[in-house]
């Protein structure tokens, strides 16, 4: 907490330090003139002397940043596309499903830009956009949640119809429940001869995911990522769930969101795929994420096309970061560049302190005496 020396407390009250020391003694505290006393004790002394005290707390920049985060007025909120993640056991077809949806929903002119893997993309179905985010794995999902990053609105639980519920299926269910997001079950690989979607449904009842036809309220869609079967049904169901969720954000404010993935590109420097979750990100904005910062030099949508701005739920590639920000880190844009750099300095210092603490040898009294 805050402290003050006896001397400066006396000076502020325009009385002698001796009087303060005497008062402290009456209160049971022995103090010298240069001693630091805590704000609670200083307040009691000052009150006793007939002064009112206001303790000024120096907020660190991080806290100031949080305080600058505006509350969104309901009138500024506009509906935004749902953000969907695909989760499930390894090899059940998460990547295949993401790719199948993406390829089934791009126009020929866009197709050139989407050959390489990207962490997030959007599709349009019946004039409505849906954002898909490829979570880099369940561990990263947990880390994101620990940082307070809530990226996804809807979880698609992929289960291979020839394999059924597996350990990471259960993990995914738990993650989605902890994040309080609705689950849509995609029973995948129904093209396989040994596919048994009914068995998957039976197994899932144990986890309280009960299909509508059995009196429950969980949406099941049977798909084949390989044969691109029933993908439209899946999109329909996502839009249905999104309608209930009424996801909203305020496009007319400074942007914030989450870094989905980032890497150092030889030619372009640090490149980060970010998901804008609130506000609008613009070229020229000063952006911070972890201890990385920069001015947004250029932005590309998931097809590689340059864009000048990105609104809520839009994933974009951002160029201009000073360093590679870690995936899962929250990003903010700040209007005052100097303030932004102060936050980064403060974070970097804290990080160094933590590292020092970790590397300092721990010596106990026992160690000292038993050498
Ligand atoms: P992930 O680990 O969950 O991302 O799974 P992948 O998308 O990498 O798929 C694992 C394997 O299953 C790959 O060999 C895919 O080709 C195959 N696969 C994925 N979806 C289907 C499907 O619908 N039908 C069939 N027959 N194979 C599939
Ligand atoms: Mg995969």
Sheet of most strands: 6 strands, mixed
User: Going across the major beta sheet, what is the strand order?
Assistant: 5-6-4-7-8-9
Low-pLDDT ranges: none
Count of alpha/pi helices: 12
What are the distinct ligands in this entry? Answer: guanosine-5'-diphosphate, magnesium ion
Mean pLDDT: 87
Terminal CA distance: 37 Å
Topology, number of strands: 19
Report the radius of gyration as a whole number of Å: 28 Å
The coarse overall form would be elongated
Helix proportion: 25-40%
Overall structural class, as computed from helix and strand content, comes to alpha+beta
Percent of residues in beta strands?
A: 25-35%
Binding site for GTP: 88-95, 134-138, 188-191
Region (G-domain): 82-230
GO cellular component, one term: cytosol
Main location: cytoplasm
Question: What report would you give on this structure?
Answer:
α8 (167-178) links the parallel β7 and β8. This protein is an alpha+beta fold. The strands form five sheets. It has a six-stranded mixed sheet with strand order 5-6-4-7-8-9, sandwiched between helices. Strands 11-12-18-15-14-19 form a six-stranded antiparallel β-barrel. 33% of the residues lie in helices and 26% in strands. It is built from twelve helices and 19 strands. It binds guanosine-5'-diphosphate (GDP) and magnesium ion (MG). The site of guanosine-5'-diphosphate has 15 residues, from α5. Magnesium ion binds next to α5. This is Translation initiation factor IF-2. It is found in: Cytoplasm.
